[in-house]
Amino acid sequence: DSGVTQTPKHLITATGQRVTLRCSPRSGDLSVYWYQQSLDQGLQFLIQYYNGEERAKGNILERFSAQQFPDLHSELNLSSLELGDSALYFCASSPGLYNSPLHFGNGTRLTVT
Amino acid sequence: AQTVTQSQPEMSVQEAETVTLSCTYDTSESDYYLFWYKQPPSRQMILVIRQEAYKQQNATENRFSVNFQKAAKSFSLKISDSQLGDAAMYFCASSGGSNYKLTFGKGTLLTVNP
Fold this sequence. Notes:
The complex is a heterodimer.
Chain A (H helix, E strand, L loop, with lengths): L4 E3 L2 E4 L5 E6 L6 E8 L3 E9 L2 E5 L6 E5 L5 E5 L8 E8 L8 E2 L3 E5 L1
Chain B lengths: L2 E3 L4 E5 L4 E3 L2 E3 L5 E8 L6 E7 L7 E2 L2 E6 L4 E6 L8 E9 L6 E2 L3 E6 L1
Parallel strand pairs in B: 2-12
Antiparallel strand pairs in B: 1-4, 3-9, 5-6, 5-10, 7-8, 8-9, 10-11, 10-12
C-alpha cells in the first residue's frame, strides 16, 4: 500500500458530463501529481501541486482543472467529457519538490460512453 | 524537455532466468533522476529502483539492478532469478530540473514463463 488514496476506483459516465476525481496524498507529502494513462498516449503528466499552489502543468486540456486544498488532498475536475477522455487517472505524491520518488495511488478508471 | 524511450514493447523470460529491459533517455538537465516502475495487472504503479545521475555506482534492490551508462544516456534494468510475480508492465522514467514530474517511456510488457 503506497499510502495514496484515490476515489472512486471506477467511474462510468456519458459524454458531455462532468466528474471529479479525488486524491489523498501520503501523510506528510506536500506535492501531488496527476497523470493520465491511456493505451495510445501512455502515461502523460497533467499537473502538479505543491502545498496548495500549482507548480507545473503538462498536457492538461482546458476542459480539465485541478486544485489542492489546505488539508493537501487534491481534486481533478474533468468537464465536457469526450470518449477520448476514457483512461486511467493516477494521483501520486511526494514529500517535497526535489529528490524524492513519487508514490502512486491505485488510479481511477474513467469510462466515457 | 526530457524524453524516455523503451525500444522493447514486449519481453519474455523463463522463471529463474535473468532478463534485461532497455531504456534510453534524453535530458538537458544536469541534475536528474532515473526510475523503473512496475505496473502489474492490478494496475498499481510500484517503484522498483531509483538512480541518481550524479552517482556512478549502479543502484541495486535485491534481484533488481540497473546498468546506468551516463554518457550513452542508457538505463537498463536487470531482473535476476525471475519470478512469476515479476510479470508486469515496466516503465522507465526520468525527472529533473526545478520540478519533480516524471517523464515515462511507453513501457515494456514482461512475461515470465514457468
